[in-house]
Amino acid sequence: MSQFVHEIVVGEKHEGSYTLELINMLGKGAQRVIVKAHGRNISKAVYVTESVRRLTGDKIGYGKIKIYSTEVGELKEEKSVPVIEIEVINLGVKPQS
């Protein structure tokens, strides 16, 4: 696979769905996957990445972890929502030249 960065946005589905999606992406040769979540789903994103790390042993690692907030809603009713982006790196895949 190329150096394309894949992204999983964690939402309302069960953790197992995202865990399986991440394992499938890494198994198909994805070198880097960004797991992203907003608000209440942040803990779910952390659970998913840690579950996959435990399942795969030393075959994945973490890259950059970004934490920030974004404004959502209408102009007069905007509110700040926290966001996390966790970069998961497939250590079993050699970068292509």
TrEMBL record:
Pfam families: Alba. One of its GO terms (molecular function) is nucleic acid binding. Residues 6-69 form the DNA/RNA-binding protein Alba-like domain. InterPro entries: Alba-like_dom_sf (IPR036882), DNA/RNA-bd_Alba-like (IPR002775). It comes from the Archaea. This is DNA/RNA-binding protein Alba-like domain-containing protein.
